[in-house]
């Protein structure tokens, strides 16, 4: 601290004591005695914090100057000393800007040096060249691992996309209509927005812990405490009982039990109540996100979950279902972001085969460049994405759109330069896709309600020969692509392009192109079996034109809350096995069993036949119209169950409303139960 600051703080009388310097001249003593007689300054010491601190160079200049003035004071009187103070003040004003600049520069240098010292303290002292090389390698590795699957927070909210499509006023007015009573404060999350009728989450018993960090990637796992494990066992017993009332009672007691919410969501979807199904999935996803570890960063895309762990599968399933419901609202950009998140959890294994749907959302939201970048990066890693029909056709479509847009833009601006996207490349990719998967063309045209030309319809390569040369596993992939992506091919710009390349493929086949024979051999050797992740994808997608046709080597039931567990599954829970007597007499149980994807009415008939032909004959004689009565009872039971669930979800409110936010109209709505949302 400079002497000038100390003089202002404590007065000139104490400056010699602070610095340890005794006055030797009479002039200095006169100045000191003069300052003693003056009224002491009333200075607030905290005001010094608001002043600009002097740099080291400025402090040195001040000290040198004061030393010189001390020698001059020996021959000068009190009047000369006062004038010298005035000159000193003028000098201070003239160099104020310079000292501020020097101080800021010194502060910046100090901050940088401090940061470097902290990093070196953590990582150790290394040569600058090694630091530079290490940073380059780490940056390249990080970009390779997480760059393509990084998440943008704003794209996870479907309401933002709805506002872009329909306008903010329309969406806001719709939200105001759905707004009910005041609710308590719920935790703000990235993935879903909590509804107003949701209860407080409290402590459901879920948590997430870090397992390990390997090559810059963090591996996590979900954990269930003892209380949640007890609820989970009750849920498994309820599923085994085939009585959905037991599951409803679990949600009534524990409104954030994840597997029970997912199971009831499937029941609502099969009864065509999609709004309730989507809300149940959103609530399950909200509970899962509230249990995230602080290190679990969604945006970076470098966090992994092991699907083999039984507790981790709920997040995969909830994300897939939520992505599907958001996509059904035409919020394709939001669905693409959830698909990227789902892929980032396990990009190598891809347990739910999200790679079969990422192309659809990418094309629908016009993310052509990102999709091509994904294809190029993963193809370079040996993923063989062109062996999937959806990638073979969708990459060609993305190239076509980019080439067309670039050509139109260059024509409007009258710019002549080499294009980045070439239409010839798109043509070649589409032709190769048609040659590799000839069974796609006719079902695709039929789905688009387009009558093909006679020479195309009669061409064997696209007809009977195509059906013979594809295995059942390949047929499932083709059916899945056609049923999901046929809307894309209804665009007017794509049909002439498709027709042109179909004619070109006919010419290549007639000319004996060796690529045609090569693709035929690949179709016969590959696609011999359907992996489990594709089976899971088909089951969860629930597309009526695509049948799972699960092979006989896959044993066990297919449960919607855990479809087809891995062979090397790490299980915390074991499903209870209990004998179920008189299954054939419980219509409600028959319905609940029928919602399972592997339900077979013929197998059920064989099981019931073991009860004895005499019992069946007695039932048939007593009620010749028993089948009709059973269907009526089934419909009544399902209707009553769904009504109970709607009442449970719509009347779940916090106990303490926000009185300040309630007006007269809201009070009337609260008093009238029929007006409640």
UniProtKB/TrEMBL annotation:
GO terms for cellular component: RQC complex. Residues 1-106, 651-677 are annotated as: Disordered. Residues 83-95 have a biased composition (Basic residues). It comes from the Eukaryota. Residues 661-671 have a biased composition (Acidic residues). InterPro entries: TCF25/Rqc1. Pfam families: Tcf25. Residues 67-82 have a biased composition (Basic and acidic residues). This is Transcription factor 25.
